[in-house]
Each structure stands twice: as C-alpha cells, then as structure tokens.
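name: query_chain
kind: protein
chains: 1
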Amino acid sequence: MDLTTNQIIAAVVSSIVILKMIIMFFLPNTSFKKFLSIYDNININIVYYIYSIIGSLVFYYIYSSSNFSLSDMLAISFPILLIVGGAMLKMIGNEKTSKIFNKYDNFNNLFKDLWLYILLWIMVAIMTLKEIFF
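structure:
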C-alpha cells in the first residue's frame, strides 16, 4: 500500500488524537495532572515559535507536494480553525478573555506578542487571494 504524504500526515495526526483521547478517558485524573505539569515547566514563547515554524513547514510541504491549491487548503482548514477557536474560548471563558486582552494597551503591544502569527495569516491570505483572482 503506497501512501501519499497527505495520508501519512493525516494518519499520524489521527493516531495521536486517538491515543490522547484513550489516555484521557482511561486515566483521566493521572493524565490531566501530568498534562498540566508539562505546561508549568516550559517556556510558552518557545513553544509558540516552534509550533508556528513547524506548522508553516508542514503547510508548505503539503502545498508543494500535493495537488491542493492554497484556496483548497484554506477552505479545508477553516472548520478546524473554528473548532479549535471555540474550544479555546470555552477553556478561557468570558471573564478571563477580557483580562487577557486588558494587558494589551494597544495593537502595537498585541503585535509584539503575535507578530509571527499575524504575519503568517497575512501571507496565506494574500497568497490565496492572488491565486484566486490573478
């Protein structure tokens, strides 16, 4: 059985999701406490940059090695973006969300923290619009 790159990536992601869910359901208290302790000992900024870079590389690799256009990839990933965004909002909650954004006095402060994320989204949006209309 010859698998494409997209199938390999999808199989790895699916396996990780299923494994995490099995661990969470069969060892809920143990896995939850270990999960939280992992985040106590890491630098969130480093993880942010690592996730952004790896995500960009995987995005580019899938784009360059498959027949998907940028508009296809963006349309396919949009529902996942909504699901993850909804889950994050549910975890943070209304009161904490406003407190999180209160630490930013203006857009410049927000941009300093999220410049890579914002830049990547702008690049993908411009490239997708260019692909669609030009």
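note: DSSP finds six helices and no strands in the chain.
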